[in-house]
Sequence to fold (83 residues):
Amino acid sequence: MEINEDDLIDRYVKDLTPIELHFLENEDNELNTCNKCEIIKNTWDTDEFKWDCDHDLKGYTALCCECYSELGCKSFYEMGIDC
Ligand SMILES: [Zn+2]
Fold:
């Protein structure tokens, strides 16, 4: 069975089938998961994903927008820090 990256986007890791989970963790793909709620997004979708290289994520490496605003995170740019 072919797995399509797009089929996994906006779903949660806990809801995946074993085959989909294998794809996510072992196959070459451009998907990533939010460290907090584990929703799956495209790595390059910067509107959806915030990374700790650009933002203060309070200890997380990657967060979706929802968790980002829930935690009250800020970008380093907003805080006046160059990175
Ligand atoms: Zn999240």
Observations:
- The two ends are 43 Å apart (CA to CA).
- The chain has one domain: 5-79.
- The pocket of zinc ion is lined by residues 34, 36-37, 39, 63-64, 66-67 (CB under 6 Å).
